[in-house]
Amino acid sequence: xxxxxxxxxxxxFDTRRLADRMAERIVTDTIDDEDRRLVESADMFFLATxxxxxxxxxxxxxxxxxxxxxxxxxxxAFPNYDGNGMxxxxxxxxxxxxxxxxxxxxxxxRRVRINGDARVDFEDPLLASYAEAQFIVRVTIREIFPxxxxxxxxxxxxxxxxxxxxxxxxxxxxxxxxxxxxxxxxPENDPASKQQNTKAP
Length: 201
Description:
23% of the residues lie in helices and 28% in strands. By secondary structure, the chain is an alpha+beta fold.
């Protein structure tokens, strides 16, 4: 799993033997029960993507616990919710498919890294089980491995976001969508468009 760039540092700091053992012992393409528990209890993760020019992008994805699902031992799925309309991460996923996912248990602490190939599906059967999801992203796991949690700071949850879509609950409109920045350029079916129209003189 290493290229010459990795080897330069491994050789400089004499970690090549350690790195090779890690790749041999802890890196797999199959999610186990412990990793499943971490992933399916997570209410957020970080998503890295790369475009077809090789430029990276990193984004935060959040939801209620369980919004990322383990479909099978080689596949994860998560919804895409309304955002700022740029679709940088999802656009990259469509162009190159390569994604990296970082899950953190802030209490244990523990980290799990997942690298894989993403596929966007507007008709995925899971779509109906997520309120207001635009589409589903399925990730085929190429590599999954734990990371040492010693540098993870301990955090506790104070409040879940009220903007996470939930069945039977009206999702509030974020203030920025009512600002001049978004005025006149929102999708017609965006709830914020209706509020803008009612405020218009």
